[in-house]
Design brief:
By secondary structure, the protein is mainly alpha-helical. The chain has a single domain, classed as hpI Integrase, Chain A (Orthogonal Bundle), CATH 1.10.443.10. Strands 1-2-3 form a 3-stranded antiparallel beta sheet. A hairpin with a 4-residue loop joins strand 1 and strand 2. The protein is globular, with a radius of gyration of 16 Å. The chain starts with 10 loop residues before the first helix and ends with a helix. The model has no long low-confidence stretch (mean pLDDT 88).
């Protein structure tokens, strides 16, 4: 049985999307997913038919002094993730929280901007995949650290992201970093 490669957004493509997006609320949502590894439900709340009791992210959960975001996520679990120094949040952005964006609107907007900017229809969750891939393959952080930041229950799930970018691994082996 052949496994499918995980789709993720590269930092270069993420930068293109951020440059193309003009709305501050959408930019913040993309930044939280790619830079800090948040799920869409942790950013704007759960799907309407979900039984999850996840509240949209509030500014009080983001501490720019310690560069931490406190998440109350999937399964009612609490975790701390980072404000990524490569994709930092600014204090004026916190005034936009909680984001008043419908999940479907956020998903559709991201897909449309990816088609327009990158020529491919990526879904919002690929931002989270991009976070894991970036932290593991570009920054070289250990899998347990990335697991903690992203809130994945199983380490082998995070391991999938380590294999998500075979070109990056090949380039490292051949010294073409």
């Amino acid at each position: 049985m052949a496994s499918k490669l995980i789709r993720f957004i590269s930092p270069q493509d993420f930068e293109k999307v951020m440059k193309a997006e003009k709305d501050k609320k959408f930019k913040l949502a993309y930044l939280l997913a790619f830079g800090s590894g948040l799920r869409i439900s942790e950013i704007v709340g759960p799907a309407p038919n979900s039984n999850q009791e996840i509240k949209p992210l509030k500014s009080s959960q983001v501490d720019l002094q310690t560069n931490q975001i406190k998440i109350f996520g999937k399964g009612g679990k609490e975790r701390i993730t980072l404000v990524n120094p490569d994709y930092p949040l600014k204090s004026y952005m916190l005034e936009l929280l909680p984001l008043k964006i419908e999940r479907r609107t956020l998903q559709n907007r991201f897909k449309a901007i990816c088609v327009k900017t990158l020529g491919k229809p990526l879904n919002f969750h690929t931002l989270r995949h991009g976070f894991a891939n970036y932290m593991l393959n570009e920054k070289g952080y250990p899998m347990p650290v990335v697991q903690g930041f992203g809130g994945w229950v199983r380490l082998d799930t995070v391991g999938l992201y380590a294999k998500a970018n075979p070109q990056s691994a090949i380039d490292k082996i051949w010294g073409r970093e």
